[in-house]
Amino acid sequence: MEIETILEKYTGSQRDNLIPILEEIQEERGFISEEAIVKVSRFLKLPASKIYGVATFYDFFHFERQPAYHIRVCNGINCHLAGSDNILRKLEEELKVKAGQLTRDGIFKYELTGCLGACNSAPVIKINDEFYSGITADDISQIIEECKMKIKEA
Ligand code: FES
Predict the structure, then answer these.
(1) Architecture of the 3-57 domain
(2) Which of 17, 53, 127, 132 is the residue whose CA sits 20 to 30 A from 8?
């Protein structure tokens, strides 16, 4: 759905609809783009900086496309000692992007994180809400492949 189509639904509405408008745009597009902020700014006759300021106050708004799979590699002390660096290197090799970057196909993003609270199972990664415990760098290719298969099946 076009941003204009979403905005049309709020014709005649007041500025207090800013949050519902942004929520609907994010639900439709997956994130709030710069273009969306400019269009909402014109629509509500509010400065874009004000809209951005309000949106960044809430951590449920995203300003870049979100991956289908967000991989968090624990870098807490136990996981670090158990080889999280190797996992990180393998992810970089498999996905061909640096930590924090979205893959070209928009499917994956990985990053280092603090302790995930499963130290006895180190090293640990978390993909979206699912934990993978006691893994090694050798497991990464298969895990990535399984994620890709789930996307194809969906
Ligand atoms: S150190 Fe990795 S889960 Fe705690």
Answers:
(1) Orthogonal Bundle (1.10)
(2) 53
Is residue 36 lining ligand 1, measured as CB closer than 6 Å? no
3 lines ligand 1 (CB under 6 A): no
- The pTM of this model reads 0.75
Q: Is 116 in the pocket of ligand 1 (CB under 6 A)?
A: yes
Residue 77 alpha carbon, nearest atom of ligand 1:
1
Output phi, psi for 143, to 5 deg: -60, -45
The segments of the chain whose pLDDT lies below 70 read: none
Q: Quick one: CA dihedral 16, 22, 25, 27, positive or negative?
A: negative
Q: At what angle do helices 84-95 and 137-153 cross, to 10 degrees?
A: 40
- For ligand 1, atom 1, the nearest C-alpha belongs to 76
Q: Quick check: CB of 125 below 6 Å from ligand 1?
A: no
Q: What percent of the chain clears pLDDT 90, i.e. is strictly above it?
A: 85
